[in-house]
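Handoff note, outgoing to incoming analyst
You'll be picking up this chain. Sequence as last confirmed:
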Amino acid sequence: QVQLVESGGGLVQAGGSLRLSCAASGRALSRYIMAWFRQAPGKEREFVARIHWIGGRTNYADSVKGRFTISRDNAENTVYLQMNSLKPEDTAVYYCASGAWGQGTQVTVAS
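Most recent structure output, in case you need it:
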């Protein structure tokens, strides 16, 4: 069973940046995909980005392409989400996922 712990959320002004981290433990991650999702108040959880642990291939939702970057640190078993040019509509709880969900971290973008 994998355990996922997110960190790095907070309050930022529109146009600002945040970097989220997801530390994974509990099983070997070499064959897995790590992903970020988000859920805004009153909305369904939606896909944001994912990365293949081997090879590093990435995919992004159209709404974040060009602004967000997902990356990984194999040695630290950690996945990052660098978020630039943040918009108020990026406000949500961000979740890390890989066979399990993390507890989420709140990102609030003020206009």
